[in-house]
Specification:
CATH topology of the largest domain: Udp-n-acetylmuramoylalanyl-d-glutamate--2,6- Diaminopimelate Ligase, Chain: A, domain 1
Distance between the termini: 33 Å
Helix content: 25-40%
Strand order of the largest sheet: 1-4-3-2-10
Number of domains: 2
CATH superfamily of the largest domain: NIF3 (NGG1p interacting factor 3)-like
CATH class of the largest domain: Alpha Beta
Strand content: 15-25%
Structural class: alpha/beta
Order of helices and strands: HHEEHEHEHHEHEEHEHEHE
Number of strands: 10
């Protein structure tokens, strides 16, 4: 079993134990007695210093709660700072969550429209009560010399040998059906949506994790001419409709929609690895937030 499998097994076991409320703190297993005080802002600035042209004058990568000046007791990395993830952070005495996606249900994390909403207030009050800072690291992690979100999912899929640090991978020839089954197995996704012929032979893959927008997905498909486009998600009237029309006119083009969380979770896990390597005096654990949508 490799280190990644060991780490995943440990995290799954820790998450399971924490879920039933037993007093196991994963930080106790790798605590550093020589840890020094380091603030939220220092960690943010350290990561941003690795990003070409950072800091950006305009970015969604801002604090959603807490303060730059607060001393970090521990870090949780995740895709979405769900209430469950926040509660797990509380259980392990971590007061800093680094999330990849919005905390408050819109890209800019605007909250004025939510001020009288009980769901928003429950979450905001929970964060304030326990002094938890949330930093969204989206634009910066995507803007590293190598997009670590994309590289993360490539690693999870076992495609490192075919990765050239861009969105195109030339895989051994396979059928669309077999490719879907491979992704389901590696990313532990029970089902996913697709457009195309399951018997189509595919090799050239355009891999676009997350939701970069239908126009960008289609523009890149027009440029690269792949056999299959793999995305996290896309509005049904955009890329899925384009690929359907391509099939209707006889083109051999397919689309696989993984789901947003599964397509980018590897990037959130990278953040935990980055903390361990660059700020080893701070305890960090990765909690996968999982998919909000279930299949019936």
């Amino acid at each position: 079993m490799n280190m990644k499998q060991n780490r995943r097994e440990f995290l799954l076991n820790s998450t399971s134990i924490l879920g039933v409320g037993l007093a196991l703190n994963p930080f106790d297993l790798f605590a550093n007695e020589e840890s020094r005080k380091i603030t939220v802002g220092e960690i943010m600035d350290r990561f941003i210093s690795d990003v070409p042209d950072g800091p950006f004058p305009q970015t969604v990568d801002t604090l959603k709660s807490g303060s730059r000046d607060q001393v970090v007791t521990g870090i949780v990395t995740t895709m979405f700072a769900t209430i469950t993830v926040i509660q797990k952070a509380i259980e392990v005495n971590a007061n800093f969550i680094i999330a990849h996606e919005p905390t408050f249900y819109n890209h800019l994390d605007e909250t004025e429209w939510l001020e009288n909403d009980p769901v928003y207030n429950y979450k905001a009050d929970l964060l304030e009560k326990h002094g938890i800072a949330i930093w969204r690291n989206h634009d910066y992690v995507h803007s590293l010399a190598v997009d670590r979100v994309q590289a993360g999912v490539v690693n999870e899929l076992g495609w490192n040998d075919y990765y050239q640090e861009n969105a195109v991978l030339n895989l051994p020839k396979s059928s669309l059906k077999n490719l879907i089954n491979h992704i389901k197995d590696k990313l532990q996704v029970p089902a996913m949506r697709y457009v195309g012929d399951l018997d189509q032979t595919v090799s050239k893959v355009l891999l676009l994790p997350g939701a970069i927008g239908g126009r960008r997905q289609i523009d890149m498909a027009m440029q690269q001419k792949p056999d299959v486009i793999i995305v996290g998600e896309s509005p049904e009237w955009e890329t899925p409709e384009y690929v359907r029309n391509a099939n209707e006119m006889g083109e051999k083009l397919s689309l696989i929609v993984i789901g947003h969380s599964a397509s980018e979770e590897g990037g959130s896990e990278f953040m935990a690895e980055w903390i361990r390597k660059n700020i080893p005096e701070v305890n960090v654990v990765h909690f996968p937030s999982g998919n909000s949508l279930h299949i019936f």
